[in-house]
Amino acid sequence: MMLSALVHYDEITTNVQDVLLGGSDTSAVTIEWAISELIKNPKLLGKAAEELDRVVGRERLVTERDLPGLPYIEAILKETMRLHPVAPMLVPHQAREDAHVDGYDIPAGTVVFVNVWSIGRDPTLWDAPEEFRPERFIGSKIDVKGQDFELLPFGSGRRMCPGLGLGVKVTLLSIANLLHGFVWRLPDGMAVEELSMEEIFLLAVPRKNPLEAVFEPRLQSHLYM
Ligand code: HEM
Q1: What pLDDT score does 13 carry?
Q2: 20: alpha, beta or left, given left = phi > 0 and alpha = psi -120 to 50?
């Protein structure tokens, strides 16, 4: 009885840890990459601000209800997830039965890694894959929900990320509010070419050096209270 209560407690702790870890770093890393790419491309920063001013205006903050009307912000998120997937090889999976995929035999028991980092930069799938171009997703049906195999930042299938819905909303809303609420630029005297985009390959792939940026309010002061 005591043992089963202990196992039960351990399972709860592990599951809570999974959700906290799975849901915090992933979103933070994605948001930092999105802002970095935009600071490097001031024209895109301007396009995002234009969409936010047109749809939301300057009298209030962005809310979840605004998200469906912000296709450019959504395109920024997809483009960030294409170039900077937080789990570059997803997590290891094991083939349960013999399979034949694209000319390769995969025996049962094989540990399979899916290199979504490379897929996102594959020149046979993407035009100018090294360029950050959110426009490529405007009018495109490609989504991050695990059905379009060229873009799998949340994985696919029965073990794909269960936090997809929450993850997309949190990152979209954060990026939208950061761009709507602040003007972003590099510190004085620093040119965009000097902004390092080096990655560090850990469990997630954050920036090697934390982003240093200057941000100034662009809305009325009472909105920040
Ligand atoms: C930007 C946000 C996020 C990204 C990019 C992301 C990405 C991923 C990826 C790639 C996996 C592995 C999928 C696979 O096995 O192939 C995963 C698993 C998981 N994620 Fe997320 N995630 C995000 C947000 C969240 C959130 C908000 C939560 C929870 C609140 C969460 C909870 C989990 C859990 C529990 C798993 C393990 C699922 C399993 O093994 O069955 N994630 N996530």
Answers
A1: 78
A2: alpha
Residue 156, token pair as written in the block: 């696919």
Q: How many angstroms is it from 164 CA to the middle of ligand 1?
A: 7
Q: 11-49: per-residue pLDDT in tens? A: 777 777 766 666 678 899 999 999 999 999 999 999 999
What is 19-224's CATH number, 1.10.1200.10, 1.10.150.120, 1.10.10.410, 1.10.630.10?
A: 1.10.630.10
pLDDT tens across 155-194, in order? 999 999 999 999 999 999 999 999 999 999 999 999 999 9
| CA 86 to centroid of ligand 1, rounded, Å | 10
Q: How many angstroms separate the alpha carbon of residue 53 from the centre of ligand 1?
A: 32
Annotated binding site: 161
Q: What residue owns the CA closest to ligand 1's atom 9? A: 154
Among 15, 26, 144, 172, which is best to mutate for testing ligand 1, by the most ligand atoms less than 8 A from CB?
A: 26
Which tens digit of pLDDT belongs to each residue from 124-154?
Answer: 999 999 999 999 999 999 999 999 999 999 9
Tell me how far apart the alpha carbons of residues 164 and 160 are, in angstroms, rounded to a whole number.
8
Question: Could you report how far apart the first and last alpha carbons of the chain are, in Å?
Answer: 51
Q: What is the residue with the minimal CA distance to atom 6 of ligand 1?
A: 154
Domain limits of the chain?
19-224
What is the identity of the amino acid at 31?
A: I
Number of neighbours of residue 46 by Cβ within 10 angstroms: 11
